[in-house]
Prior knowledge:
It is a single chain. A hairpin with a 6-residue loop joins strand 1 (about 110-115) and strand 2 (about 125-130). The protein is built from 6 helices and 5 strands. The N and C termini lie far apart (about 60 Å). The longest helix has 30 residues, at about 165-195. The protein has helices at about 1-20, 25-40, 45-60, 65-70, 80-105, 165-195; strands at about 110-115, 125-130, 140-150, 155-160, 165. Helix 2 packs antiparallel against helix 3 and helix 4 (about 65-70) packs across helix 5 (about 80-105). By secondary structure, the chain is α+β, with helices and mostly antiparallel strands. It has a 5-stranded antiparallel sheet with strand order 1-2-3-4-5.
Amino acid sequence: MRFGLILLAAILLPLQLVFAATPQETFIDQLGQKAIAVLADKSMAPDARHAAFGKMLHENFDLKTIGRFTLGRHWRDASDAQKTQYQELFEKMVVTVYTQRFDNYAGQQFSVKGSTPVDGAASDTLVHSSIVQTEQGAPPVAVDWRVRTEAGQNKIIDVMVEGVSMSLTQRNDFDGVVAQGGVDGLIKDLQARVSGEKPVALPVGK
């Protein structure tokens, strides 16, 4: 009897380890469910909803790391004042972009599918998720979240929709703007996007 219990435990324990969610998967799952809860609250005014999403983004995304990456090689050439102004405007623009995405929510279902470590980046994990569309016959959308874990804290540093990186796409966009008007030109461009004078293009998908 005792041998049988030990054998059963030996069989079940590996299964439990296989199906146990990693901290990064739990982080993304909880964030997704929290976002859906806000979206499903029809009593919440649009301004309050946008403020709630802005708070979630600031708490769960490493916007400074994302901003520096998207400026790319031009970061080295920017002055301290330009860097500060750019980062402030970039963060405001990201909040605008994602609140636009959330405004398009129509009952889609979100689920985490697993995760894989990122090669060459010991602190980074790619968490795989799927968004099931409400339209009949529409295929699910694959969304991968690059999560960086430092000192036990998880932060998102990139989002990939169907394999397309938001950060890399935005970086290419900014590179074109800087090529024409320098870093000051990009700052003016971001000011126009944030103020609503220029439409904010969604960097991945529609």
